[in-house]
Design goal:
4 helices, 178 residues, 2 strands, mainly alpha, two-stranded antiparallel sheet
């Protein structure tokens, strides 16, 4: 009687790999113990006619007991390693979660802020933007209220950013000339 478990089927997919292996080792141990217990039961049903048969039967009985003890000891030894494997796996999982929660760099924060600002600006412009057609069929965009204020702020920020980039380029060129 062999019990085979593969890929944690029947144990749940979010179980640790080491826990799945533990359950597999337990099943193997139980299978071995059940086999030798059945062999012991078979010995009880076997008739012994003389002392040699009784001695053989007794020797087999002790052998089966030894095999059962060895299977249990093998499982117990593997459990010590299981505890360490499980601790390592949990540590790796915690490291992955910690990596996700690491503070963002200045550049990442800036990119997120720009995306958020662009989203807000789009919403405001959608609310404040009107299209007017003149007699020639030319469309003219009219920005009013808060939309105009945000456009001015965006233009000022872009101009400042371009000025900073130009200053940095000038410094770089000057340092190369020296």
């Amino acid at each position: 009687m062999q019990i085979k478990y593969t890929n944690g089927i029947g144990w749940g997919s979010n179980m640790l790999k080491s826990s799945q292996e533990k359950l597999q080792r337990q099943a193997e141990r139980d299978s071995k113990v059940a086999f030798f217990e059945a062999q012991k039961e078979n010995l009880k049903n076997r008739e012994s006619l003389d002392l040699d048969d009784i001695a053989k039967k007794l020797e087999l009985l002790h052998s089966y007991d030894d095999q059962i003890a060895a299977a249990k000891q093998e499982y117990n030894s593997s459990q010590m390693f299981h505890v360490m494997d499980e601790a390592i796996e949990r540590g790796e999982q915690m490291a992955k979660e910690a990596k996700k929660n690491e503070p963002k760099t200045e550049e990442e924060r800036r990119e997120e802020a720009i995306k958020e600002a662009n989203g807000m600006l789009s919403e405001i412009l959608d609310e404040q933007l009107d299209t007017i057609s003149d007699d020639n069929g030319t469309d003219t965009l009219v920005i009013s209220g808060k939309g105009m204020e945000y456009c001015k702020q965006l233009y000022a920020a872009e101009s400042e950013n371009q000025t900073e980039e130009a200053d940095a380029e000038n410094l770089r060129l000057k340092s190369m000339q020296k």
